[in-house]
Amino acid sequence: MKKDKNTTNDILRGKSIFKTMILLSIPLFLNNLIRSFQGLIDTFFVARIFESEAHTQSALAAVALHDQVYNVFLAFGTGLAVATVAIVSQYLGAKRLEQANKFAALFVSLAFIIGIVITLVITLSAPGLVHILGAREHTAELAVEYFRIRSLEYAMVLFFMVYQAIRQASGHTLRPMILNILGIVTNSILIFIFVQVLGWGFTGLAFATVIGNSIFIPIMFFDLLKVKDENMIQINFKGMLPDKTRLKQVLPFAIPAAAGQALSSVGFVVIQAFILYNYTEVVASAFAVGNRISGLLMTPVVALSTVAAVYIGTNIGSKQPQRAIQAYKVSRNTAFLLTVALIAIAIPLRRGFIEILISADAVEVVDMAMRFTFWLLLTQPFMALFQNYTAIFNGSGKAKNTLYMAIARLWLFRIPVLLLLHYAFNLGPQSVWFAMMASNILVLFVAEYLKRKTSLEVAVIVDQPEEEAYA
Fold first, then answer.
1. How far is CA 60 from CA 65, 85, 312, in A?
2. Whole-model pTM?
3. Which residue among 16, 108, 300, 429 is least packed, with the fewest CB closer than 10 Å?
4. What is the C-alpha to C-alpha distance for residues 316 and 322, in angstroms, rounded to an integer?
């Protein structure tokens, strides 16, 4: 098979893993950074739509509740993306481009199908769902509206996650970044027009985000169908038709990753509902703001670990496990040191950032967010390690270990510790902060145990002749 100089086989096999990893991570970092700013922009405008502080707190709580539920359903996209990176990168490492193309096409069709189903579920269940999760009165009204409008984007967002994973699996991180940034810029412009110029308020904010997340999807789809380089991943409509043989190979990769992400997200939803039931919307808003800041600081770590997963998958496919381990160590060490440096800057400067985000006039929310972010940021270096454990599990096709980590972090440690601190020690909102710290540290012992049990062997089927495998 003819090799393209820009394919995984060359890009990911340079002598300097650190240098190549940084170069490939930069587009992903910029992509994730700007996406994090998208959430911050939403928060900025939400905090200024309503004149009364009570309505503003309701709006912030409604958006925070949506974000937690949104992440639960995005778990399907995460599962598909993890499976895409693992399967496609290993086939590319084994020099089976045709099989990589077929599986990429299957993942695209699954993204659209699952996304449409999610939209229908959210549209029909929104009123009951927000009530179950603790939203009441004005918060509930705003949440139902926001849930239903944002549900329109699921198919597009899941497709983007698969598209990005397909291109990442072959070491091409620039094109998805450019298209995603254009979508986010469009979103930001539309938010200003819909909210500030046209006065559409909360509804305008939701529709602007849907349009921004959808407008460039046709270009991405066309890119996969009509890519000119025959050595890059290219799909066709025939390959998009699901078949039992390929689905059987996909499910062991996708289901554990999706389940792990879903269980983590459900855990956050439970915590958000717990906060609304037991504390106030001030605490819920501070919780949301703190998580947004944490997400912003994690963007370089997520970029590094994503590239590490591709490195690991590719080198496993080409039967170079030692190089896969080396890539993991480079990513882990770099991410840890970078995170320590970032929190050393962020902790002293966090008040100014919080006040810009939600307005200095919201004194209660600002003070609560200050306390929460202090404790949360202290655990960021541990989350950098956690993210890289995820990379080695997903890249090696052992996504079930990611599932076990998710269960341990949220359901074995965080939620039980939260309940213990709240009911037994009556610590109030501090129960949330300390439970998050404890779970972020304790889960690393579970992760290290699982890593030592992980073998770096080829997880896809490469023995058949190219024309017979999954024909």
1. 9, 35, 40
2. 0.74
3. 16
4. 9
